[in-house]
Amino acid sequence: MSESTLADISYPVRGRLHLLEFLVEEYGYVNRSALIKYFGISTPQASYDIKLYLKHRPNNLTYDKSKKAYLKTNDFVKLF
Fold first, then answer.
1. Which residues, at least 6 apart from 60, have a Cβ–Cβ distance to it below 8 Å?
2. Whole-structure pTM value
3. Helix, strand, or coil (residue 6)
4. What's the Cα-to-Cα distance from 69 to each of 5, 6, 7, 35, rounded to whole Å?
5. Nearest-CA neighbor of 55 among 11, 9, 19?
6. Share of the chain above pLDDT 70, in %
7. CB 21: neighbour CB atoms within 10 A?
8. CA 50, CA 35: separation in Å to the nearest integer?
9. SS in 3 state form for 9-31?
C-alpha cells in the first residue's frame, strides 16, 4: 500500500472508513461482513478498507480471532 493522506483517498472510500469508525465507536467492533452488507462491496475491498483505516490509526483496533472482528482498543483516537 502506498503512502497516502486522507486527502488522497477517494470520497467513496472515505465514506466507508467513516462508517467503519462509527461502528467501532457505537458498537465496539467492526467486521468485513458489515462493510460488505452495507456498501455492497467485495470481501477484498472490505479487507483493503480495514487495512487502510489501520494504516492511519494502527492503535484503534485489535483483531479478535474467536469473534472474527476488529475490536476497539483503549487507545482509540478518532480519525474523523
1. 21, 24, 53, 54, 72, 73, 75, 76, 77, 79
2. 0.89
3. helix
4. 25, 24, 27, 12
5. 9
6. 95
7. 21
8. 9
9. CCHHHHHHHHHHHHHHHHHCEEC
